[in-house]
Write a structure and sequence with these properties.
By secondary structure, this protein is mainly alpha-helical. The chain contains 22 helices and six strands.
Length: about 475
Amino acid sequence: MSTDTFKIRLPFNPRYGWHKSKKQPCANYRVYNAAGKRKLRTKYFSRGHELHSSESLAEFDQWRKRMIDGLTPHTGHIELEYTVEELCRSWLDYRRETSPDYGHDKRVAVVLEAYKNYKTNDFRSSIMLAIRDSMRRDAEVRGHRNRDTVNRYVRDAISIFAWGSMRDFVKAEVIASLREIKPLTRRESPGLRGRKTVYACEQTSVEQLIAVANPTLATMLTLQLETGMRPKELRLMQWEDIDQSGPLWVYVPKSHKNRHREESRREKNQRAIYLNRRAQEVLWHYHDSQRPDPLNRFLFTVRESSAFNLLDRHRSKYSLEVCEVLQRITRQKNRRFGTRALSVHPDVYTYAMAAEELGMKEETVRTWTKKRPWEMTLSKAFQNTPLKGSHEFTKDKYHHAINRLAKQAGLEGFSAYQIRHLKAEQLDQQFGREAAAAVLGHSNISTTAIYAKRNHELAREIQSRADQGGES
């Protein structure tokens, strides 16, 4: 059976007519494969319409336009009406190809799920406000979203319609109405909490996380502690972006927070992260001695981190003592159990004997023995870990991984950005505010002031000297 894909070609000119045997309007058209071979296809229209009736011709015309739209994906037709579901589906297809945060995009589309059958041209600001009020009430009850998150979801939902307006899915007056919506304020939503302020964590907290983390996450946390880089710059790290020629390695990330501003000013990439000796040693040791997939272009991948976790769970279940007992079971056929086997072969070690030594059921011992747990290695754990989504850590995946680590270490409300704040405070106290801005990659020193806390020790010392001067 041929697996060639047949598609229509432009100009697309189907022949409208009447199917005599089926007694309904239809259209005949040709499709072609890559080799130029063609086939004839038929599209049937509603049986209740007469040939050349206005209803049948309108149905034929809409079908023809949609077929042409299929050749130009992510583009609508000004004369057609689309539903919110069709708009979201086309937008998600577009974002799947272009967005690094596709998980958030899907959650934004779910916000519009209740109105999926609405016509996009009938959508107004009153409907979006109803969606926002529903999200606000839900967040007040469950406490899982703050005010800024609700505003972000509404803003991103409006951006879907803005995207559709540029591509003829939505009329311009719809997006004009939606853009009149102002962000939710504290006065309008007193029951919603505001954005959580991020403060620097303690050095000991990071050390606790590193102690319980797998090698992938432990290396990432150590690098962030040594350099103060942003989580995004850490997640997308690649060897090709690191210059190893000098005593200090220089990492120039392809993408960072202010890259779009540099591109708008036609400037080259100004962000440079310097790796000291400690960072170099940790990074090279992980890459050279611990990684199960050293050929991956990303230095840190979700699959490798999951493989380390799988191996840890395996070893916690099948301890060295258990594996030694299972390996002692006689491997020859028909010599594993039974009193006759013991009388004929006194050196035999049976399932029953292993179960008695381990204090578990004999069936469990048989099942575990078939799995041969003593042969599990990091390479096998990596092979048994399927790849889901992208290789690199996304924003959500890294956030969830750090959250799990924090719970395991007994830390509440910890985030990776707290390490960056900690580094900012250390640099500010040791070398001054300007040095901290240079290391953190801030073009404006006022941004660094947000990260670095007030130097209370300096204020106390100044006031003490003033008192001493007054006494003298």
